[in-house]
Specification:
homodimer; 426 residues; Dna Topoisomerase Vi A Subunit, Chain: A, domain 2; Arc Repressor Mutant, subunit A; 2 domains; 18 strands
């Protein structure tokens, strides 16, 4: 895996070769670059700290909250099968004892959600409600719940994976609308205390990964240094992913596929041992699970490269804190400790991004930025607050690709190496 | 590559196990299935015909149209570099001789487009226009053209690949809006007579491939039978793809990622040697180039699995005929001979897809269907016309996943094998 691939292009003047002011600033910054070994030293320290970190991830039980709060966990098929059988037995017993047929379903409403600052995550409180078969207002939902349980049971028994849409189509007459089967699926996942992926109901993947990572996808050994420029598609079935190995020093989380392509083509990971991953915009569940998995098993720091706009930060927040409607599943989907490497509002002046490559923020952008300033995950990081305040004040945003104004390979040859050398992350 | 992977689940009753009428029809169809060897015989014949086919793809010169029409072709970096140098020399000579500075740009307007029935493609006629520097109405475009030529030259010299967005950001002051640099890029591609990929300006990829295919992505050997369930992301840079090898009998082109996932998880390609590819909806340029490349080099028949609705057929048409605004590049992007395997309107009754799994077509759907009936690529295939007329008449559509109503693996275990056994494609 340590085999060095040829790198294309040399560190030289920018591709355009013009000598205007932005370019000379770019050249100046390029001159500040130390040797690769020196640059790596900075990240090696962070990486070592991350690996030796004894501060294990806090759980609800560490906080004495396990009885007051509910979380789900990844469980293997046989244990979920057992839980479903138990649920069926409970129902049968309840019927035989004359108490009727009903399910006890955890409430997923926002009034039952709780932000736990120590965990930096949203979890569910303990409130549940009875879903009674012999009641006109709940009979339909109770029937759907029984049906979904039996379908999931069949899927797990066959050891296959299906999508939510597949599930819906198995009984359109009963479910009527996919939102109904989807909602009950989430109920079932809470009720059984396992993640949706443990139910073998998966989302479609759109993420890709490349770099210093070897893993197994359904038994096939995947070496991500040998995945060309296209990279490896992140598998939808996280439970079929195993045996992660890596000699990387960090994970580079990239918002957009254009930047991913640049780094993959330049084989950035050979110069700076890292794993590069992108969900191509809004993160999907498969990519979030995969990132969490890498972070947990490899204990690597995660550095994020997103656009300098509120949307870029929103994407970071989805990786870090999850989205509200999946709060019960948050511990498996969220990677709390992500460093904001760039593009940060302060970079625009520091790197002298030309005025015409910056974009004016719309009123809606500014509002989104101000809303973010009220979010817990921003507030607890002073550096982020400052950057965000600067963004809202200057009303300027910029895409990662604005760096192309200094040459197409400026991102991989100057910007990122300098960022790492200066440990310039928040 | 011929190594057999375990297949999950057995051909048995549908996952849901219920004995309602649709299921019994499903069982009935399942019983019609012959042995895998027999089924493969059908496709083997088609595959052999496809491989031995001496009818080489027609070109413009075969039709004596090469002087009247213009097409672009894939060319390597050194030859494109030479063309750019020549264009620069021509301009210099023209200036020195007192004729001034101008480019001769092929017109890409629809009045200059021509549908060639023999090729089943749209090509450009010969009309060009002078883009003169010393003229107020064209000076800006002439300047942009010169700039794009010099940028592309730099990219090719470095032997890297960039996106359209990267290109735009190198000189926002001049380009002002990305649509301006994009349009000139297409002009340059026509002017130099090479594809956009030959200019090393690539689109982001979203397609994935899995199955009996080995190829090289930027020097890395990729065995697509060993890509797990996630599959291999199709590389954006088609010119870095090489040495395709395959023992597949056909290419299965799938509209949606859910169906792709089902087939990948069931390792369908081990039972029926094939290459499975999807662009996850609307086809992107990288996937179209990749399909064309496979079809041309491996000489395999292409079978398409799309939703039974006008949108599914539109997707087929993009693969087959291209889109109008890329007509000059059509020979590299289009794969004319694709068979419509399913889901076809006639399948809904043949497979007795339950009423509640069919969706009513909206007025807009019906209009789209009627519009398709006027399209050349539909009209020249009688079978397609009949199917489409049935769709418009019954006003019913259905997704691939409607087959899940017979069990989650019905698609891979019954529907597709039976389709192939009966050579049921159009």
């Amino acid at each position: 895996m340590s085999e060095k691939k040829r790198r294309r292009g040399e560190a030289g003047p920018s591709a355009t070769g013009k000598k205007s002011r932005p370019s000379s600033r770019a050249d100046e910054l390029r001159k500040q670059l130390k040797s690769d070994a020196d640059i790596l030293e900075s990240v090696r320290r962070m990486s070592a700290a991350s690996k030796s970190s004894t501060s294990k991830t806090l759980t609800l039980s560490d906080l004495n909250l396990s009885s007051a709060c509910r979380e789900v966990s990844d469980r293997d098929a046989s244990s979920v099968l057992l839980s479903i059988e138990r649920a069926a037995l409970d129902a049968a017993r309840s019927i035989l004892s004359g108490s009727g047929f009903s399910f006890d379903i955890p409430s997923r409403s926002s009034s039952n959600q709780l932000y736990v600052p120590e965990l930096d995550r949203i979890v569910l409180r303990e409130k549940t409600s009875a879903r009674i078969f012999a009641n006109l207002s709940t009979v339909r939902k109770a029937t759907i719940t029984a049906r979904v349980l039996s379908l999931v049971y069949a899927v797990l028994r066959r050891n296959i994976h299906v999508t939510k849409r597949d599930l819906f189509y198995t009984d359109v007459k009963l479910f009527q609308d996919q939102s109904h089967s989807d909602a009950v699926l989430d109920d079932v996942s809470c009720m059984l205390g396992c993640t949706r992926s443990s139910l073998h109901v998966v989302a479609s993947e759109k993420g890709v990964v490349v770099g210093r990572l070897i893993f197994y996808d359904d038994g096939d050994r995947i070496d991500c240094t040998k995945m060309g420029i296209g990279g490896k598609a992140i598998p939808p079935n996280i439970d079929r992913v195993g045996d992660l190995e890596s000699d990387a020093l960090f994970i580079l989380l990239v918002e957009k596929d254009a930047a991913f392509m640049r780094l993959a083509e330049d084989r950035f990971y050979n110069r700076f041992p890292c794993i590069i991953v992108t969900a191509k915009g809004q993160p999907d569940v498969a990519t979030r699970l995969f990132l969490k998995r890498m972070k947990t098993e490899l204990k690597l720091p995660v550095l994020a490269l997103v656009d300098s706009d509120p949307y870029g930060l929103k994407i970071l927040s989805v990786y870090m804190c999850g989205s509200k409607n999946m709060s019960y599943d948050s511990s498996n989907l969220t990677t709390p400790d992500i460093k904001w490497l760039g593009i940060r509002p302060s970079d625009l002046d520091k790197y002298q991004v030309p005025e015409q490559c910056r974009l004016p923020m719309t009123d809606q952008d500014v509002k989104a930025g101000k809303d973010l300033l009220e979010e817990d995950f921003v507030k607890r990081n002073e550096g982020w607050v400052k950057e965000l305040e600067m963004m809202v004040k200057t009303r300027q945003k910029a895409e990662i690709q604005a760096l192309s104004s200094f040459g197409f390979q400026y991102l991989s040859e100057v910007y990122l190496p300098l960022k790492i050398q200066q440990q310039d992350w928040l």
